[in-house]
Specification:
The chain is of the alpha+beta class and about 130 residues long. The protein contains four helices and five strands; from the N terminus they run ααββββαβα. It has two domains: about 30 residues, no CATH class; about 90 residues, no CATH class. It starts with a helix and ends in a 6-residue tail after the last helix.
Length: about 130
């Protein structure tokens, strides 16, 4: 993603944000206020009974991010990435939580369902 084209070019340029061909990361939007934000909530941060689980995708599977039983640096880093993404919008935001796919072991529905239910329970309208 080239930030110059993504943020500044208009509807006629397929490299711009109008086309949603390229995603911007939390690093590329940190410090910016954007009119509209679309956030895809992946299985790296999962809601489970009693709190959150932290994961990273390495190789062919999800691995738990553990920092010795308490909220450690790697877990705080992941929470902060979502905080940045969720605090950039001035006018509106779309949060997309994938439905999961029971035939794909890396995208099992249980990775996403509880997070979706939690966010919906907060009163958010999710797609």
């Amino acid at each position: 993603m080239d930030p110059v084209h993504w943020f500044l070019d208009g509807r006629e340029d397929t490299r711009s944000s109008y086309y949603l061909e390229d995603a911007a990361t939390e690093f590329q939007i940190q410090g910016l206020e954007l009119d509209w934000i679309g956030v895809t909530w992946d299985a790296d941060l999962r809601r489970v009974p009693g709190g959150w689980q932290f994961h990273e995708f390495r190789g062919t599977k999800w691995n738990a991010v553990s920092d010795g039983g308490k909220l450690g640096n790697r877990q705080r880093y992941l929470l902060n990435a979502y905080r940045v993404l969720l605090t950039r919008a001035r006018q509106g935001m779309v949060i997309f939580v994938p439905p999961g796919d029971p035939t794909d072991p890396t995208r099992r529905p249980d990775y996403y369902d509880q997070t979706y239910d939690y966010l919906a329970g907060l009163g958010l309208s999710l797609v």
